[in-house]
Recover the amino acids of this structure.
């Protein structure tokens, strides 16, 4: 801004007058712009990673675009037919097909291949080849391109064509993989004679044994028998098995397939390039595949490959499955995104309100002396833009540096929106407050302020929206993609609670002012009086910001804690305990194994169980019962320790030949509570159900019937051992259990296997940012509110020191003045955070964030996380105490004459 005609430049003067406030405002804008730019980039980044991983991890048979065309027609001359299948012709079609792929599809030349193959396998004549049920093996012949770049020669050399190969050629060279050679007893120099050719059988001389360089890649995996032979069977009674394998011929040998009965066909297997796929490419990718399978894209491919060519792929199903997971997680992520955005907006508006309140007299004086609204707004816009625009640009650059591989435009719009809001908030607030010049300022403190009708209507509208959003979330859950009202439920609950707290805030101040006035000292009364004299608008904004920030942090922390609990629960339901040892065939474990497992470091409890099948009668084989024989005391203690269907001792007693039992709900409904005979492998026993549990460690999933193993007739030893203990030694446990017929399953390993997919990892990070952002915004809101009144407090302390106030009393005065707001905000934040989690827990689906697609876990619900609930609230109170103490100490170092200069505007 240009210098004034009779003074210094406005912006420079204002920034020099309040450098700390400008710095705090710049930090706030930097943080907000960083989050606003980071969020869309993060969402796009983990969506891109999820799409690429979904395509890369899917079986190649599902993702490769396979273009097939039948052999050239018999109406063509034989020479033309042979020319059409030679490598040069097939390579030209491959290049044309790859170029004709619609965007965003792109070919990966390294894993793509083309050639000729026999659609029908051919029978081998050699009696020396293995014949499982007397049936000879069958071979598929392929002339696949690029074999030299995808295999390492272990024996011999690669096959070659000796001279021109035609449909009448009957001796060729071929190669097999190591697996094929090992299974079928082949080696370099072996021969395979195949039936099904005109005139004479085809003899293939094996010249090389190959090792695939990337056996799981598309080149080898699309045709499974190309790498590894497989057993096939003929439908008969009983089924008769034979070997299916593949022989690799030289690409120049393709014409020979035209002389056989193997139904030869041309093929082009185009592997998709996942390296350049982005999250926004999912829908266009599905459309592109649909076009290639039966639309304009297929017509373009037929121009190159022939009028009868057809393309098949499962790529669209893979993409749609990944998109379904993304769409399922998106509403849950939107809840966190709304929380962060709402807190950021509230704190930015609060900073503008505090700045306007701090400069109320200055702006009123400018208006009274003829300042226009346009001129005042322009000056305020200039001084805020000098700080806000560079800070927003810094936040944008930081977000781009933190998350790469995403578009710049969404981040630019987010950071730009923050810059616009930060620049416009103060001028708009000042223009609204000073539309008309005022001769004096009316009293507008908390003790006398009365909400107007417009505010009441706005608050009631917000209340209705909050009630509707909570009801919708509880009824429909977070699965309603695109429902902004549902996603904003935690924020709306926090805002309504904050507005209620703002209305109730003056009441405790009034109640405490009376007793404080009767005390001997004046510090308590002065602190409460000053807290009550704070302008209503100024005092309400920090409360609103603090409560919204604390609610967002509490909800985000509870979601993260719930995700960890859901995975812990899923791992427990897989093993039933911290470790599970079982035999693979159901035979009893050795008697000394219990002692060996109990001696492993970290094991606290061990229970042996025998799991067997039973029925309600000898003739009932359609509804078996899973009977678990246990040692009652050891098993009951282990069940209570792991928290899975625990029951008190004495529930598995026996009396009068009847065994007491603990059953699942389905078994209890089936058998009833009266004594009932059941047929076990050892004989008939009578059981009576005394307790019902949904789960039990021996059978974590499914129906069960627990009885005392000593009461089962003919019962052998335990078939399964369950161990409980924190930090048990996995290596020592496996050494103690060693045996080829035994399996060891550890809860910790199952828990580690539930690792984040890119989508789940991104969602978890966003919720982590919500917790951190909520805590940081709470800190900034508190610091900004305390900085606003810092000059006024310093002047007050200086005046009171001239009247005899000691430094210790000054510290107590400032601390007690800031305590009501911080304490009420902290207590309100804890209460609102707890209530928000309890209200919204039924509608938040943690399975989508914690478990693989389609998996669910019983009992995994959203619970309040004490740390994310209490730590930010306690930090707000401690920070308020620290800031006021530091301010009192700093003011005590300055003399009253310095604080009370003549003409001071404070």
């Amino acid at each position: 801004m240009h210098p004034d005609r009779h003074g210094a430049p406005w912006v420079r003067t204002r920034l020099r007058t309040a450098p700390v406030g400008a710095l705090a405002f710049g930090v706030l804008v930097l943080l907000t712009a960083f989050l606003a730019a980071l969020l869309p980039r993060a969402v796009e980044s983990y969506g891109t990673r999820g799409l690429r991983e979904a395509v890369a991890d899917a079986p190649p048979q599902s993702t490769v675009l396979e273009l097939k065309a039948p052999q050239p027609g018999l109406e063509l001359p034989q020479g033309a037919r042979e020319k059409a299948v030679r490598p040069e012709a097939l390579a030209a079609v491959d290049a044309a097909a790859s170029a004709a792929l619609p965007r965003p599809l792109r070919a990966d030349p390294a894993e793509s291949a083309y050639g000729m193959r026999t659609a029908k396998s051919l029978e081998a004549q050699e009696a020396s080849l293995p014949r499982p049920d007397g049936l000879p093996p069958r071979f598929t012949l392929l002339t696949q391109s690029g074999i030299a770049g995808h295999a390492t020669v272990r024996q011999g050399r690669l096959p070659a064509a000796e001279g021109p190969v035609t449909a009448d050629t009957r001796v060729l060279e071929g190669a097999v993989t190591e697996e094929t050679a090992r299974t079928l007893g082949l080696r370099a120099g072996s021969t395979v004679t195949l039936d099904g050719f005109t005139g004479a059988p085809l003899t293939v001389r094996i010249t090389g044994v190959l090792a695939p360089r990337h056996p799981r890649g598309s080149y080898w995996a699309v045709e499974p028998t190309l790498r590894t032979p497989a057993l096939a069977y003929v439908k008969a009674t009983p089924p008769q098995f034979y070997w299916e394998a593949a022989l690799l011929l030289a690409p120049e040998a393709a014409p020979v397939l035209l002389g056989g009965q193997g139904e030869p066909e041309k093929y082009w297997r185009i592997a998709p390039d996942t390296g350049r796929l982005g999250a926004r490419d999912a829908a266009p990718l599905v459309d592109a595949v649909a076009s290639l399978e039966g639309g304009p894209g297929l017509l373009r491919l037929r121009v190159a490959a022939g009028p009868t060519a057809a393309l098949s792929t499962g790529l669209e199903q893979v993409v749609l499955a990944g998109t379904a997971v993304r769409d399922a997680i998106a509403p849950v992520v939107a809840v966190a995104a709304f929380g962060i955005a709402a807190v950021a907006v509230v704190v930015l508006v609060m900073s503008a309100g505090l700045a306007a309140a701090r400069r109320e007299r200055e702006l009123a004086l400018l208006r009274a002396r003829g300042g226009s609204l346009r001129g005042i707004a322009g000056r305020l816009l200039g001084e805020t833009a000098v700080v806000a625009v560079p800070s927003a640009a810094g936040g944008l650059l930081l977000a781009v540096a933190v998350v790469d591989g995403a578009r710049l435009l969404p981040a630019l719009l987010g950071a730009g929106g923050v810059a616009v809001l930060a620049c416009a908030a103060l001028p708009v607030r000042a223009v609204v407050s000073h539309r008309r010049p005022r001769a004096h300022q009316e009293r507008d403190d908390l003790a006398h302020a009365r909400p107007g009708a417009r505010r009441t209507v706005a608050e009631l509208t917000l209340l209705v929206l909050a009630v509707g959003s909570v009801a919708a979330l509880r009824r429909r859950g977070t699965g309603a993609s695109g429902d902004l009202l549902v996603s904003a439920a935690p924020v709306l609950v926090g805002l309504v609670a904050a507005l209620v707290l703002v209305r109730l805030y003056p009441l405790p101040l009034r109640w405490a002012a009376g007793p404080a006035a009767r005390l001997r000292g004046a510090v308590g009364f002065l602190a409460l009086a000053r807290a009550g004299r704070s302008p209503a608008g100024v005092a309400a904004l920090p409360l609103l910001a603090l409560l919204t920030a604390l609610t967002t942090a509490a909800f985000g922390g509870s979601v993260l804690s719930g995700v960890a609990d859901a995975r812990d629960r899923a791992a427990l339901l897989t093993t039933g305990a911290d470790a599970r040892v079982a035999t693979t065939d159901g035979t009893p474990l050795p008697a000394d194994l219990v002692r060996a497992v109990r001696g492993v470091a970290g094991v606290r409890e061990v229970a042996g169980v025998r799991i067997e099948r039973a029925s309600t009668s000898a003739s009932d084989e359609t509804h078996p019962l899973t009977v678990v024989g246990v040692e009652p005391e050891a098993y009951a203690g282990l069940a209570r320790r792991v928290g899975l269907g625990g029951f008190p001792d004495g529930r598995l007693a026996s009396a009068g030949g009847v065994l007491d039992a603990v059953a699942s709900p389905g078994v209890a409904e089936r058998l009833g509570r009266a004594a009932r005979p059941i047929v076990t492998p050892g004989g008939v026993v009578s059981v009576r159900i005394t307790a019902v549990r949904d789960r039990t460690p021996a059978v974590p999933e499914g129906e069960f019937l627990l009885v005392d193993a000593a009461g089962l007739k003919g019962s052998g030893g335990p078939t399964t051992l369950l161990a409980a203990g924190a930090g048990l030694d996995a290596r020592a446990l496996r050494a103690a259990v060693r045996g080829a017929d035994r399996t060891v399953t550890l809860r910790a390993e199952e828990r580690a296997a539930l690792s984040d997919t890119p989508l789940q990892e991104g969602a978890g990070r966003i919720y982590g940012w919500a917790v951190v952002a909520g805590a940081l915004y709470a800190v900034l809101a508190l610091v900004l509110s305390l900085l606003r009144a810092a000059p006024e407090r310093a002047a007050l302390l200086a005046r009171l020191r001239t009247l005899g106030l000691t430094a210790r009393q000054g510290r107590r005065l400032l601390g007690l003045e800031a305590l009501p707001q911080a304490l009420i905000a902290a207590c309100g934040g804890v209460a609102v955070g707890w209530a928000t989690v309890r209200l919204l827990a039924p509608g938040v689906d943690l399975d989508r964030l914690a478990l693989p697609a389609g998996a669910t876990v019983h009992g995994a619900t959203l619970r309040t996380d004490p740390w994310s609930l209490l730590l930010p609230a306690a930090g707000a109170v401690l920070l308020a105490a620290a800031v006021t103490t530091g301010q009192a100490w700093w003011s005590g170092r300055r003399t009253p004459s310095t604080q009370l200069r003549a003409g001071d505007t404070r």
In short: The first helix runs from residue 10 to 17. The mean pLDDT is 82. The two ends are 26 Å apart (CA to CA).
